[in-house]
Amino acid sequence: MNGVDLEELRTLIARHARRDTHATALDDVLVSSVDRSAPPAPSMSGVVMALIAQGSKRIALGSSVHEYGPGQYLVASVDLPVTGLFTKARPDEPALGFGLVLRPALIAELLLAAAPGDLPPASAAAPPGMVVSDAPAPLVDAVVRLLRLLDSPRDAAVLAPLVKREILWRLITGEQGATVRQLGLADSGLAHIARAVQWIREHYAQPFRVQDVAALSGMSASAFYRNFQAVTAMSPIQFQKQIRLQEARLLLATRPGDVTGVGLRVGYDSPSQFSREYRRQFGLPPSQDAVLLRGTTAGREPALV
């Protein structure tokens, strides 16, 4: 990797990162600067590519742990419940990250534009929903050129979509291309699991049978269970529990005095079970955590950047 590109990437991210949001003036382009290693925080991953320019981050997904540092990128192909923390971040050397939201429609366009034989055939099996690789120099160069456009608003409207396509192409043809390519295939194993994930997220407070969600995904129960675990590193029921607890924590940030009501709203009939599982997940019972959460705003931005 070109060290000059990485140094310019750090400079650009530091210049444009804001404390209140990861968003930038470019659609789907995210940057962040974090100057301290905070306790692990639960969030949703987003469907993104995240590239670290400085510092390092650790992401726990189910039973899997992913770490990435300077010059490495992580791809999350499904919006997953994760717990993350920056392991190297301090005021004189903040952790700096870039992110690009991955849009399946744009990936599909590139797959259709590729000449026959340019890409390997798609696999029927669903790939892991989260993967890490070293970023090749052409990918870092494209990210740098995209961020330069934040300083050239006149050029950004025309050139930013072109550079985004280049970044996506680098991902499609790169080491983790199998994962990214499945995002653009409507009938891929990943697409089936993504539909199941979306259904569970929308109905997380309701009990369900795995075989019923498998049928909604167009898969047999055994194939669905196997592919779901491959993508999310969790069983469907474990995934639902993670979503319930994360939603409960978001609600407690605004309703700290209604622990029982929050538990019921996210699907727990038993207050004791809710308190027990909440404490196991976040380290404190919901009543105590609610006090700490008071006055905070829990964001919905991708956790990986």
UniProtKB/TrEMBL annotation:
Pfam families: AraC_N (PF06719), HTH_18 (PF12833). It comes from the Bacteria. Keywords: DNA-binding, Transcription, Transcription regulation. The keyword Transcription applies. The keyword DNA-binding applies. Residues 194-292 form the HTH araC/xylS-type domain. This is AraC family transcriptional regulator N-terminal domain-containing protein. It comes from Promicromonospora alba.
